[in-house]
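User: Quick sanity check before I run a bigger batch. Here is a single chain. Can you write out its predicted 3D structure?
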Amino acid sequence: MVAMNELKIKKKEQRRLEQKRKERRKYYLLYASLILTLCMIIEPDVIRYRLALNGEITNGIIYEKEKRTPSKAGDIHKFKYKFYYDGNMYTGKSHTDAKEYREKRIGDTIKVVFLPKNPEKNDSYRAVDGSGAVFVTKFFK
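Assistant: Done. Predicted structure follows.
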């Protein structure tokens, strides 16, 4: 009888420990999701900071304009552009405001900032400057 009670107590303790493990797993998944989301949010700012610190400026040619209205909050305006560096063509896209979007036409030029060691990392100078990255890097040069 005593052995039976001890067995029940052990099983109950095992169930309690398993339940705690399951709860911990949920929190680990939640923390991992939050960290991933945070990284995705700050990645463009980190790239713009690197562009402001180590980038070179060249002229890009707008080859496509994109406008989307995903919600009542307003339109999203983007330019797709191409530029040449070291004999190769590279492309990129950048957000812009409604005024510049209306003023610029396909074939117009815009300033583009790119990393010479990795020209795929690029953005418009206006986007980099507008993010505050150019201002911040003035303190580190």
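Strands lie at 56-71, 74-85, 88-96, 109-115, 118-124.

User: Great, the batch can go ahead then.
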